[in-house]
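Subject: Protein record for review, amino acid sequence with backbone structure tokens
How to read it: Take the token row as a discrete description of the fold.
Enclosed: The protein record, placed directly beneath this head.
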Amino acid sequence: MSTAGRGSALAQPLQRPSAGRMAAYAGLFLLGAVVGLAGALVQGAWFPGGLLLALAGAAGLFLGGAYALRGRGGAVAPVAGWIVAVILLTASRPEGDFLFSAGLGSYLFLFGGMAVAVICATLAPGRQPGGGAARLGK
């Protein structure tokens, strides 16, 4: 995307993503929900190792989505799916059933997952506009 003669890339109007990119975002959202569900089950089954495995899987998905789509949106889509799944799993049912207990592992999974999400979205590569290099020496 060249901005020659049109001003800064930030001043340009937003464009709708392509159908393929929107499908990739939807797929990453669903994959984030699946990873959140699997992490909720694994972290409770094997406490120290399962918690680390669940957080490592979430971090891998978040960063992998960002690098696959070459932008922070690739990290935000699975994060949104993960958060929706985990928040829905924390609610207790009318029968009194629940998936998360009020223990240290559950809180570490919730807060650790949120911290991993913020870190991965921050470390994700931002989309760069096309064009020549912006070095002063050229």
